[in-house]
Amino acid sequence: MTRIFVMESCPDCIQAKQLYGANPDYKIIDIGKQASDLKEFLALRDNHPAFAKVRERGTIGIPCFVKDDGNVVISLKHYLASSDITTSEPEYSSGAACNLDGTGC
């Protein structure tokens, strides 16, 4: 089962939840709802090599897809590119919700 770390205020996370939330092969984990989920995500973010650039830029790294084999994909765009799901552009305009420096998702 692929785990998807998301947060309610992130536009890309909202789209990820819409695309995968009803699929039993995916588990949506909202890191803003339970401290234990946030702690799990932060441990992953602080230690996994896939997050090196995320840490350098000071961004959050969500949505984050953790596949069964341990591979991590940190962008909905990149995850969609690696899957067989096609979708139209999101119905939102990318805002400053995801990055700590206000530069958007």
Commentary on this structure:
- With 105 residues, this protein is of the alpha+beta class.
- The chain has one domain (2-81): Glutaredoxin (3-Layer(aba) Sandwich), CATH 3.40.30.10.
- The protein contains 4 helices and 4 strands; from the N terminus they run βαβααββα.
- A 4-stranded mixed β-sheet has the order 2-1-3-4, with helices on both faces.
- The longest helix is centred in the middle third of the chain and has 13 residues, at 35-47.
- The radius of gyration is 13 Å and the shape is globular.
- 25% of the residues are buried.
Task: Compose a concise summary of this entry.
This protein has four helices and four strands; from the N terminus they run βαβααββα. It has 105 residues and is an alpha+beta fold. It has a four-stranded mixed β-sheet, with helices on both faces.
